[in-house]
Amino acid sequence: IFVPFGGFMALFIIGIVYWMSRERLSPKAELDLAIRNREFIVHYQPIVELETGICFGAEALVRWLRPDGTLVRPDLFIPIAEETGLIMPITNQVVEIVIAELKSLLVNERTLHIAINLCAEDITTGRILDFLDGKLQSTGIHREQIWLEITERGLVDIDAARVTLRRARQAGHAVAIDDFGTGYSSLQYLQGLPIDALKIDKSFVDTIGKDSATSSVILHIITMSQELGLLSTAEGVETEDQAAFLRARGVNFAQGWLFSRPLPAKEFIGFHKNNKETFGAAREIVTSAD
Ligand code: C2E
Ligand code: MG
Ligand code: MG
Ligand code: MG
């Protein structure tokens, strides 16, 4: 009778020790494990053309699906990944997931685009471009269908960034400045950068129709983007009034809960199908490479 009991005890203790060791891992070690176990998933938030309502594509947004079933938002782990030098393998996994999940959609729908978020280290080293190049080869997906989003915070080494962005555009990718207006970049800064588009941060979209002082800031951003010949996307659009304001002022694209929340791949494919039946196919948008 003691032998099986001993066996149970041993298993129980091993279980407890395993559980405690997992709980006590540092954030870096936990993320490291998540990368090795490929615990990341991607949701796609549709981006629509404001003038026509046509789906232009989607932004790929990473989430961490932990083994216990909890879904961790990127805001909670991307900064840790950046600080601990683990961002590049995460960006790479996002690229692999996007290709695996959306390859046939992108090959069949040439006017659809997917935007991928890059961090400072991706932009400084430029290695993401080699990775993308390798992964896109023989998929039939065009380089033009993959947009790259970079934040102003990502431009820590501006000379290295310039090299990477130029290479990205020569390969055919379009480059958008994400969360525009929340960083420090001045007009002067932007003028020298090889980019195609600005994403107007949600905080400015939120001011539409509210506070006239701050909503004049968004007008300046729109004008500036047009004067620089850039495409513009408004993020975090939640109301029809906001969409009407942005459309009337010539903002090209929008994303936000008004159109759709971020969706799993299958649901995004369904969204696109519906959208195409309602509004028709998108026209080709050519961005200006160097
Ligand atoms: P972001 O690129 O500015 O992404 C937009 C965020 O706004 C998303 O949050 C999205 O779910 C949320 N959002 C969109 N529309 C609305 C709306 O109408 N109302 C509200 N309240 N929120 C809206 P999410 O997915 O939590 O992403 C947060 C940030 O994490 C992203 O900001 C991006 O900077 C970063 N991120 C996400 N995925 C990746 C990734 O794969 N790599 C990197 N480096 N960063 C990522
Ligand atoms: Mg983004
Ligand atoms: Mg934002
Ligand atoms: Mg953004």
Please report the distance between the alpha carbons of the first and last residues: 79 Å
User: How many β-strand stretches?
Assistant: 9
Largest sheet properties: 8 strands, mixed, barrel
Strand order of the largest sheet: 1-2-4-5-6-7-8-9
Helix/strand order: HHEEEHHEHHEHEHEHHEHEH
- Counting helices, strands and paired strands, the structural category is alpha/beta
Which ligands are bound? ligand C2E, magnesium ion
Relative helix content: 40-55%
Give descriptors for this structure.
binds ligand C2E, binds magnesium ion, alpha/beta, 290 residues, 9 strands
Architecture overview:
It is a multi-pass membrane protein. Helix content is 49%, strand content 18%. With 290 residues, it is of the alpha/beta class. Strands 1-2-4-5-6-7-8-9 form an eight-stranded mixed β-barrel, surrounded by four helices. Strand 8 (231-234), helix 11 and strand 9 (253-254) form a beta-alpha-beta unit. Helix 4 (87-108) runs parallel beside helix 6 (127-136). It is globular and about 80 Å long. The mean pLDDT is 92. One magnesium ion binds next to strand 6.
Write the layout of secondary structure elements.
Layout: H1 2-23, H2 27-36, E1 40-49, E2 55-65, E3 71-72, H3 74-83, H4 87-108, E4 113-118, H5 120-125, H6 127-136, E5 146-151, H7 158-171, E6 174-180, H8 187-191, E7 197-200, H9 202-205, H10 212-227, E8 231-234, H11 240-248, E9 253-254, H12 265-279
Parallel strand pairs: 2-4, 4-5, 5-6, 6-7, 7-8, 8-9
Antiparallel strand pairs: 1-2, 1-9, 2-3
Helix pairs in contact: 4-6
The structure holds ligand C2E and magnesium ion (3 copies).
